[in-house]
Amino acid sequence: MKYIEDIDVLGKKVILRLDLNVTIDHGNIIDETKIKKSIPTIKYLLNHGAHVLIMSHLGKIKNEKDKENNSLKVVCNRLSELLEEQILFIDDPLSEQLQSCLEDNCLVMMENTRFLDYPNKRESGCDDELAKFWASLGDVFINDAFGTTHRRHASNCGIAKYLPSGYGFLINEELVGLEPIINNVQKPFVVVMGGAKVDDKIKLISSLLEECDYLLVGGGIANTFLRALGYNIGNSLCSYEYLEEVRNLCGKYSEKLVVPTDVIVEDSGVTRRCYVNEITNDCTIFDIGDDTLFKYEKYIQLASTIFQNGTMGKYEDENYRNGTESLFKMYDQSDAIIIAGGGDAVAAVNTLGYEKAFDFLSTGGGATLEYIATKKLKCFEGDKNDSRS
């Protein structure tokens, strides 16, 4: 797969896969980072005479009702404002209008690719006929959706099989920015793992434990680790179906895994701090405590390279922000190479104003984790000329 600057796009119809999977609350975009990161590639293509069809996913579509809250229309409107360019929006990813709209328009966006995941998972199942249809709409395919590089979907891996393909500025920025935790990582290498659930990360956590020197856990993920170690976690979020697997990791990597010793909980409507052996059935864990932060600080001070995914708690609520913000303050005083990956982590960094504490902010969540763990990008594997897969 070639770099965008090595492809002649003059007069070409370009299918551009972006990651515009942003959080939308009551019609308002919570964090615009992914949208803004897509702009350089779009502008390059327009400035070099291309007609561009933008595609992206948004959320997960498991039923017809999910489509109501996951339309890309609001994203299209905001992108149009930021670009100061008119974008024609096609509200059906299989519309016959897609066959001709690029002839008369320089910039087009089609509806959420995952609308075709219900009922048959044609997008996420990399349906070949769907990939052929989308490929037929253009002359060139440019993938700039780093956040989905760990997926083999019709809109990335599928299209790449049928069109001359390249990757854009965002993916290139990610590959360069993540290099310090891909090759010749400076040790000690510390991973700080937060977020809600273990479910999507368990295999990657296992891989990262082989690579890193220490892995510090927080957020909902920490609840599963605490429960696997025998602690009561009350009403807290937990991936119970993975307890045995997590328990095995705790045994195998006991020297590397570091879990909270105290937490901040909501107990019958009251926020309080308690040690992990004091948690009662009425408690819900929402953050890590001061003793845990003191312990984690020692590992952060030792580190030469730090990677953070997710947050330490429900940072959106001031009552449960201290864990995440305190770690960011520690990073600000560290000389280590510090990289954050994932929408939640980057949103927290931007919300709390600690961008300068990080050497690189990756837009990928699972994609970043898998790239670190496997050194491969699955979405490129459909392209015969890719040297990065």
Concise structural overview:
The chain is α/β, with parallel strands linked by helices and 389 residues long. 33% of the residues lie in helices and 19% in strands.
Describe the structure.
By secondary structure, the protein is of the alpha/beta class. It has 2 domains: 2-171, Phosphoglycerate kinase, N-terminal domain (Rossmann fold), CATH 3.40.50.1260; 178-373, 3-Layer(aba) Sandwich (Rossmann fold), CATH 3.40.50. It is 33% helix and 19% strand. The protein has 13 helices and 18 strands. The strands form 4 sheets. The chain has a 7-stranded parallel sheet, with helices on both faces. A 6-stranded parallel sheet has the order 12-11-10-16-17-18, sandwiched between helices. Helix 1 packs across helix 2 (73-83), helix 7 (202-211) crosses helix 13 and helix 8 crosses helix 9. The longest helix has 15 residues, at 33-47. It is elongated. Residues 384-389 have low confidence and may be disordered.
What is the CATH C-level name of the largest domain? Alpha Beta
| Average of pLDDT | 94
* Percent of residues in helices: 25-40%
Helix/strand-derived class? alpha/beta
Q: What summary fits the major beta sheet?
A: 7 strands, parallel
Radius of gyration: 22 Å
Number of domains: 2
User: What overall form do the CA principal axes indicate?
Assistant: elongated
| Beta-strand share of residues | 15-25%
How many helical elements? Answer: 13
